[in-house]
Structure formats: C-alpha cells, structure tokens
Amino acid sequence: SDHMENICGYLMKYTNLVTGWQYRFFVLNNDAGLLEYFVNEQSRHLKPRGTLQLAGAVISPSDEDSHTFTVNAASGEQYKLRATDAKERQHWVSRLQICTQHHTEAIGKNNPPLKSRSFSLASQGSANSPGVQRRPSQNAVSFFNVGHHRLPTGKRVPIMQPDHLVDVREMMSQAEGQQRDLIRSIECLPVSGHLTSLDQDLLMLKATSMATMNCLNDCFHILQLQHASQQKGSLPAGTTISWLDPKISLANHFKNGAAQNFPAEINKAASVREEQPVAEPCQLTREPEEINPEEELEDICDDKEDDLGAVEEQRSVILHLLSQLKLGMDLTRVVLPTFILEKRSLLEMYADFMSHPDLFIAITNGATPEERMIRFVEYYLTSFHEGRKGAIAKKPYNPIIGETFHCSWRLPKSDVATDAGSNFSAHSPSEQGTLSKDLEGQTELDYYTVKFVAEQVSHHPPVSGFYAECAERKMCVNAHVWTKSKFLGMSIGVTMVGEGLLSLLEHGEEYTFSLPCAYARSILTVPWVELGGKVNINCAKTGYSASINFHTKPFYGGKLHRVTGEVKQNATNTVVCRVQGEWNSVLEFAYSNGETKYVDLTKLSVTRKRVRPLEKQGPFESRRLWQHVTESLRDGDIDKATEHKRALEERQRNEERLRAETETPWCTKYFLKEGDGWVYHKPLWKTVSAAQTQQMDTN
Q: Which parts of this chain are annotated as the region Disordered (predicted)?
C-alpha cells in the first residue's frame, strides 16, 4: 500500500500500422483501479480517450526492446506502450502491477470461490510396471482413464455470475496442471514396446490436448467480453463473438523431456527473442542485373496444390512436431517437414498476386481520383485468390537471403479498361491461350509490359522486398514484407508486417497499403487458408481512403472467407463505394450512384507470367535455386527433396556464420534500406524524374 500512488505522464501508444506510435498523456488511478489516457495533459479535465480496468489485467514488459510494455485487460483489450527509457518503463510496470494485484485480490476476497470439480488421472507407475503394459484391445485414451464427474440428477447447473471469473481462472490453472501431468506421463513411457511415447494415438492426444487448452482460453475470453458488455449494456442484436488469440499464457510445459527427434531449432525457437527488422547500413556493391523481357517465355508451370499427397501419409510426423511446439511460439526458426511445402518460393507467390495485370494498369486510366481509388481497391481484392495455388494450405519455400525472382507480363493494350464500366474482363482459358499466341506477332507498341522483381533482403528476421512497374503507363508498386508466423494450437498464424506504395506518376498520386494476416487452419486434417484483419489504403494527395476487413470465421454463425470494405472521401466523410462478399469467390461492389457490380473471381482471366528458362537464370534466382527440391516433390520423393532443402539451408547457415566471424554485413542486390522500409534501387519515380529534369535542361 506504500507504493499505491497515482502517477501520470506521457507515454507512446501504438495505434496501428498506418498511424503508428502517438504520444498520449496517461493517468494511473489507483483508487478506482483504472488506467486512463488523454490526448495531452491540457485535456486531462475532459473525458478520457480510453480507459482500462486493471483488475485481472496482465502487465508484460516486451522482448522487443527495453522501452516497450503491454497492458492486457481482462476484457481482452490491449494497450501497447513505450516509455522514454528502461528506467521509466520499470517505474510504470511496477506501479501498474501493484495496482493490478491489489484490485484483483479485492475481487477474490469479495467473491468466495465456487466448489471446484475434480478431474482425475489414473495414478501412473514406472515405465516398466505392470500398470503401464498395454493390452492389444486397450486404446491410448482409455489407458489414461480421464474421469468425467456427473452432476446429481435433478440439479440444474447454476448460472455463472460475472464476478466468478476469478474462480474460473483458478479452475483453468488446475486444468493446466493436469494437462502438464498428462504430457509428463506420456513422455515417461519407453520408446519401444506395446505402448511407446511415439504411439500415434498418444501423439494425437498430446496435440489435441494443447488445442483444447487453447479453446478453453478462447471461451474464457468470451465470458470476459460478456462480462464487460453487461457492465456497459447488452450486446447489440446480430453480434457475433469471434475467436481470440490466447491472452492467458499457458505454463511452459509443452516440451518433450525425451525422444527429441526433431532439429534443435524447434526447442531453441522458444527462447529466441523476437528480432526487429533492422539491417546493417550497406551500399549496393553487387551489380544489379538488367533482365531482358525478350528472353522470358510464357510460363507453362501449373503446380496446383489440391492433393494432400504425402501430408496424409506423414500424419504421425505432423503429430510429433505439434507435440514439441508451444502456443504462441515463433516459427521463424523452426524447421518444418518438407512434405508440407508447395512447389514455389515465397518470392514467386508475391509475383502471383500480380496475375491480373489488366486490372493493375487500369487503375491509372481512372478519370477522377475517386475512380482511381475504387479501381485500386477492386484490383487489390482480386489479387489474393490467384495468389493461392489450390484449396489445400501448403507453405511456400522460405527464401534464402539474396534469393531473387524475376518475371513479366504482356497484355494487349485493348484488354485494359479505359472507362468505368469495363474494369473486368472474363476470357475463358482457351481464349486466354489464343490471346497469348496473338501477342507473339505483335510489336512492342501493341502491348503493355509489367516487370516484376523480388529479393530476400534479410534472413533473421525474414524480410522480402518486391517491385513491379509498367513504364509505358508510368506506374509502379514497391513493398516490403516481414513474415511473422506463430503456432496457435490447431492452426498457424502469419502476420504480414510491412507496407506497400503504389505510385501513379501521371497523376502525381501515391497510395499506401498494408496486407492482411493469413491462417492455416485444420493442420491435422485437411489444411485450408483463411485471411483475417483490417487493412487500410490511403492517398494523401486526393484525400480518398479505403478500409477493408477480412473476417475470420466467428465462434458461431457467419461465413467463411468474408470480406467487407468501403471507400470514402476523408474531407466530407462520404462513402463512395461499399464492397462485400468472399475474397476467393464473388465480390459485390455498390457505388454511390446506385449501380452494383458483381465479380466472380473464379472466372476472371489470368495472364500467365513470363519467366526466363532455367539455363538462363542466375544461381540465386528462385526456380534455379530450388529446382532439385521442386523436381523431387513433383516425383513424390520426399527424402530426396529433404536432402536438397537441407543442403541449401546448411549453406546459408555457413555463409551467415562466416559473415559474423569476419564482421561483414550482407549487401543486397536490388533493394536499399530507407528508414524502416526497403526500396527498389531504380524505381520508376526516380528515372521519370531524372528524364524530365534532363529534358528541361535540354530545352
């Protein structure tokens, strides 16, 4: 109580990728157990911009740096804050933790705990005792004899009161302890005999028990949200409650004490601190290669990932891998099995997002700023469907540092929409093949060319840069993406951290945009991809912006792959276009003039990219670099594919170790570090500006 003092001061608060960090004035009200913030100190007498109840909250210093920390409220709301230095952070964290503990304990004293139900496990003997011997007819689940206690007949289950959430947390802790005992019992079994620690049923039990704990945590958070809504008023009609990322940190017991058959990187990943994408300053010393589009040929490769193939056969390996991971673990350094890989690099996947170059070029043909923003949103939403190869969720190759991918697209100028009513073309596959052949006899003046280049600019953390341009239309897009993947139980989440910039030089406009998160769901059965999160598109010059929401499947109700969004004029806050539908099926665009347009993404024409033959590619170009892995996967030879993949990764580690010993920084080939991002070394906006300056000097 001596330290229960009210403190206040300025902290930086993280809002989102677009707005970033903002200074706000924070006040810790110990008496009320509240953390409040205001725009500045002068507005302290006004209503707070935000308030967090600290009872039941978790205060966590961040591993990112010595200044950042998070406040996770029991309602599920989170503040990510940053102090000026480590000392100030410690001051705030200690005061917040004292206040949180005081008010959490006060709730517990005012509400006696419910009578807890017990879940018993049969007592386990040693690995060699008769009680552990498995009879042929005895399955793994019945062996552990998980007991279920029934309530007496005639008695109704009492309705859980909101104030009993603290008791629920205690019961969750008990469940965690029992799950820990279950894992320990399995791992104490011998590695050979009738019942082993690698038994497929037991591996399934370990993996699903982890998912069950994750599910219980989600349900607990739903109760917390309902509690918070009851304090503010009832939930509005039609509200759906979505699954949340686990906020309650489970005990660190998802480690195997024996049978460590997987690479050491798996166990090491848990203790590795999450790096920030900071690279050594380095000038471009490797000479960039100018790719001649005339050397590129239309791509005939079509590796659709619609077959489970080896994934079905290697189910026990997946179970073993999952049993070694922990919820929330960063998978950046985890070596995943080869058979879950799709036959292309991540850099090529970014290129496949450009498979509708006609819609891309049509953006700059918009007659007004409003129409150009709408066209960009239409193009953006149609790019994700073709970027996925098939319905089965498989993982692209992790690019090797220094790896590059080049390609281009050609399309007749007549295929690009010039008026607002013809944004989308719908050629059949046979028509598309005819169009491609027709291009061969056309001169350069008859078609547009879109060039693409991507490079892996960093390995830890994994950052990719990619750039595309259409010089004839004076438009280009530059982006950098840092992929952060985490294990979420029965799914894997990938956050795409970074930003893209579309430049329309004919109009002097720049559009910033971000990317949604991706989730691989049902990784034990038939894995599938889901997109989630909110992305923003902004054009500072015109004042138009777009907000797009990729909706994940709610806890109950709702549809799969749903997306909604709107385009508005910021100055007047007028919505000029609304969009809804599924990002991999049909989209509906409703415009302010009353018109409505439906787009079936499965029927949109796809322009095949043009790629140089393998013999003309450099040793670090994606397809040549991974050619032996790809060929082995096509042949179904998983062991051979794993050998080739391991050789590439080992070479990368050796080169990285050598650079560390000689203190030699890595030098990129096509992209340069500028601020927090990566920019193509010769973007169109620089070359066009230089040409205009030279022309003015000549005149």
A: 104-136, 638-658
